[in-house]
Amino acid sequence: MKNNPLSRLGSFGQSIWLDYIRRDLITGGKLRRLIEEDGLRGMTSNPSIFEKAIAESHDYDENIRSMTVEGKNANEIYEALSQRDVQLAADEFRPLYEKTDGKDGYVSLEVNPHLAHDTNGTIQEARRLWSALNRPNVFIKIPATNEGLPAIQQLISEGINVNVTLLFSLPRYRQVAEAYIGGIEARAAQGKALKQVASVASFFVSRIDALVDPLLDKSITQGGKNADIAKKLRGEVAIASAKMAYQIYREVFGNEHFMRLADQGALVQRLLWASTSSKNPDYSDVKYIEALIGPDTVNTAPLETLDAYRNHGEPENRLEQDIKEASWVLERLPELGISIDNMTRQLEDEGVEKFNKPFDKLMATLAEKAPASLK
Fold first, then answer.
1. CATH number of the domain encompassing residue 47
2. Which residue out of 2, 30, 52, 141 is catalytically annotated?
3. Residue 287 falls in the annotated catalytic set
4. Does pTM surpass 0.85?
5. Residue 201 lies inside a defined structural domain of this protein
6. pLDDT of 3
């Protein structure tokens, strides 16, 4: 474990989490081995992950059959299966959660993705899931939409742990951090304990390059001065955005205002790097882990990316390197006719849809699987 690049990430202040969940992974012992051998410190899930786990395996067939006999519908079956997976995984991480005094050992479950633009619906759903899971080391995932922001603040004020998901822009990240602090301040004003509440802000990385690179390729093809700039920016915008987000993190959570809350027990809302598998085969398969290693951060990655990093990762604190260059990269985009605001708005809309579609597909799959399980 000492020479394992994955386990060495912790010495740089970064927690490595798994962006995947499946029943056999938990009950078959692999999750425990990842915790013990690789230093895995948490787990995230989303509707797409659950859709693949349930639709493409037989892990859940017996549960589906028994719940069908009980007369449960597709949504009730999904909730029972997903909540049980999260509970089982949270129990595996519980010793780590206690050992780290609540810093790590969390498992995330997302609210119904169709609630992304429904503040009250999100709050009600999050309360219900939090109560049903009944574990201190779980996060309820809330999308960072305009409507999600007040829900985040309200839920934090109630002591519900929140993983803010689908973050793409720097202005929105600042709003998310402020929503978290607003929730903490509300708790402090009510005399409630601050130490018990945790949150992470999940900044989606590789999807940014996947959207921007084709636009840069057009500039390269057209030639001229802009082509030279576009070449320098290709594959750099996502990492530059993440590095600048971390600068905002240091500003917001390192000032005197938050320090006073920290003195009362408040935890920082860590930045979590999500979507860190490389979407472009031309790039290193560990590109979005290597570049974003730094203190008080989390990186959640799928199994294949963890395997790649275990094999050839080279941990080093790179998150605070080349900050001027990162700022330069983002400043060049408007010169090439690329609007950062439009880009991140598109990514947010697409992100919501990318969770809606697999969720709906899973409901359809369960509607088919349930009757078939009785034959």
1. 3.20.20.70
2. 141
3. no
4. yes
5. yes
6. 84
